[in-house]
Specification:
5-stranded mixed beta sheet; about 325 residues; 2 domains; binds zinc ion; Nucleotidyltransferase, domain 5; alpha/beta
């Protein structure tokens, strides 16, 4: 059978990325240009600045990716593009580049939902086996999704307020760690002790999550300690916060796996890089005899390889867009 190469483009937030993936599972080349250093000074991603940097970098990133792969656009079967959700100005840059390539080279344009991309990052590691439960934990999402075949998504639950990564970033700011906070809290938590008491959020029987109350509890605790003249111990606060997050997520995932009798769990999104979460899920999966798949770190955070992998399966389902395709800052996964 003929090999199918898909060129993927991702620009939904602060990474400009292009990748070529063979048959939806084999990464040929990936270039990711991160703007993290630029946004760190502002304590978070500044949308206007992000879009401008995507404009500056997009052609260079695509050219570099093709060069790395030693391939041409002509060798591609289709162009996969993140159409949303994300920052609209950032999304539009990638989308316009993808549309231009699609038009000039007569290649089908495959629209990919960013979260489908995160889920399909796992396909680059091992084939997805159904039925499975996907836990998507990123800066913008905390979702539990059930899949019983390729490109079929049933949302079981999600966050009612902040996404888990967003909560990490906000708590990191309170502890004075800067942006992006997730990796920094993760590092600190490793050396701290979970000595601070924080409430377990949304401790109910649903598949939903809530993190804004936990964020407020950390802020209140930090202020209270300051008021009574105590110096906060950042590593202990990080460890206490991380433990509550991990316990909360693991509890809901365990319930969904049991209720739906699923024995495959895949984890996706930037927060899947979290050491504490990986260890907590690993332990739970061993207890429940569930097969766990978590992509390597470079496929957990935003990248175009996951978009090209998802695009392959979307393409197989006949999901092809025309040039009227627009970016969407929010859209449900379907
Ligand atoms: O998936 P992603 O790269 O972008 C979005 O689609 O949101 O996720 C970025 C988020 C940020 O909030 C970042 O702080 C968080 O993932 N993150 C982590 C870790 N690495 C990245 N959170 C906790 N622990 C980590 N090790
Ligand atoms: Zn993402």
């Amino acid at each position: 059978m003929k090999d199918i190469y898909i060129l993927g483009i991702e620009s939904s937030c602060d990474e400009t990325s292009c990748s070529i993936v063979k048959n939806g599972c084999e990464e040929i080349a990936t270039v990711v240009l991160s703007q993290i250093d630029i946004h760190t000074d502002f304590g978070g991603v500044v949308p206007e600045i992000a879009s401008r940097h995507h404009v500056k970098n997009i052609t260079m990133v695509i050219e570099q990716c093709l060069r790395q792969a030693n391939m041409k656009i002509e060798d591609m079967e289709a162009i996969g593009i993140t159409y949303g959700p994300g920052l609209i100005g950032s999304l539009l840059v990638g989308l316009e580049a993808a549309k231009t390539l699609s038009y000039l080279y007569h290649k089908p344009l495959i629209p990919v939902h960013h979260i489908a991309g995160h889920i399909y990052a796992n396909q680059l590691v091992e084939p997805l086996k159904f039925p499975l439960l996907a836990l998507v934990v990123s800066g913008g999402h905390t979702d539990l999704i059930r899949m019983d075949k390729h490109y079929s998504f049933e949302k079981l639950g999600g966050t009612l307020d902040d996404a888990v990564g967003e909560c990490y970033d906000k708590v990191a700011r309170v502890i004075g760690l800067g942006y992006p906070g997730g990796p920094k809290i993760d590092q600190l938590a490793k050396v701290g002790k979970p000595n601070y008491h924080l409430p377990m959020p949304l401790n109910d029987d649903s598949y939903n999550f809530s993190f804004s109350g936990l964020k407020s509890a950390v802020i209140n605790l930090a202020h209270h300690e300051e008021q009574i003249g105590h110096k906060i111990i950042p590593e202990d606060l990080a460890a206490s916060f991380q433990q509550v997050v991990v316990d909360s997520v693991v509890k809901k995932v365990r319930k969904a796996l049991k209720d739906y009798q699923m024995d495959q769990l895949i984890v996706a999104g930037g927060v899947a890089a979290n050491r504490g979460l990986r260890d907590g899920l690993q332990k739970m999966c061993e207890e429940e005899h569930v097969h766990l798949s978590i992509p390597p770190i470079q496929f957990c955070t935003d990248n175009a390889a996951m978009i090209a992998a998802a695009a392959y399966f979307a393409y197989r389902e006949g999901r092809i867009a025309d040039l009227a395709l627009n970016s969407k800052s929010s859209d449900s996964l379907h």
